[in-house]
Amino acid sequence: MSFSFTNFMTYMGMIMILHSAYSCLHYRFLLTNIGSTIDFDTLKTDMNLDPTKPPQDVVLECLLGFFLCLFGKIMNKGDFLPVSGEGRKEVFAPVHVGRDFDLFCTRQGILNQVKCRREQGQ
Fold first, then answer.
1. Per-residue pLDDT of the chain (122 residues; tens, 9 = 90+)
2. pTM score, two decimals?
3. Is 65 exposed, middle or buried (0-12, 13-18, 19+ CB in 10 A)?
4. Nearest-5° angle of CA 86, CA 87, CA 92?
5. 12 vs 5, 62, 82, CA distance in Å?
6. CA distances to 18, 60, 64, 81, 91 from 25, in Å
7. At what angle do helices 56-76 and 5-35 cross, to 10 degrees?
8. Which of 21, 39, 46, 92 has the largest CB neighbor count within 10 A?
9. Environment class of 68 (CB within 10 Å of its CB; exposed 0-12, middle 13-18, buried 19+)
10. For residue 83, what pLDDT is reported?
């Protein structure tokens, strides 16, 4: 297996995603340990120390890792081929084949009867 730039991008993206997951777990661990000793209400700071939300650097690292994996795999596949190729012919089904979804027995008659009963009852 040859190691190319696209493989490097993919592996770096995977490593970044794993690192962001570890960073998020470490962040939550620190907040739960520190949270028992510090009262966040009396702490006058602009930092958002919410253990239910990941920090912004973790989110950015995860997104960057995802896009690195995505572009690495897309670029690894090579050139895109056209969707419509030569020798492609149109296929038409006859009218009597494949029209099982046409329903001619509906609830319209029952709904009309209920409507008439309601009008007669009023």
1. 557 888 999 999 999 999 999 999 998 888 888 765 655 555 555 566 666 788 889 999 999 999 999 999 998 887 877 777 667 677 776 666 666 666 667 778 888 889 999 988 86
2. 0.56
3. buried
4. 125
5. 10, 11, 30
6. 11, 15, 18, 42, 55
7. 160
8. 21
9. buried
10. 74
Task: From 61, 75, 76, 81, select the one nearest 18 (Cα to Cα).
Answer: 61
∠ CA 112-114-115, nearest 5°, is 60
Sign of CA dihedral 93, 97, 103, 104: positive
What pLDDT, on the 0 to 100 scale, is given for residue 48? 63
CA-based R_g, the chain, Å: 30
Residue 56's nearest CA partner among 17, 11, 20, 29 is: 20
Please say whether the dihedral angle defined by the alpha carbons of residues 36, 38, 40 and 46, taken in this order, is positive or negative: negative
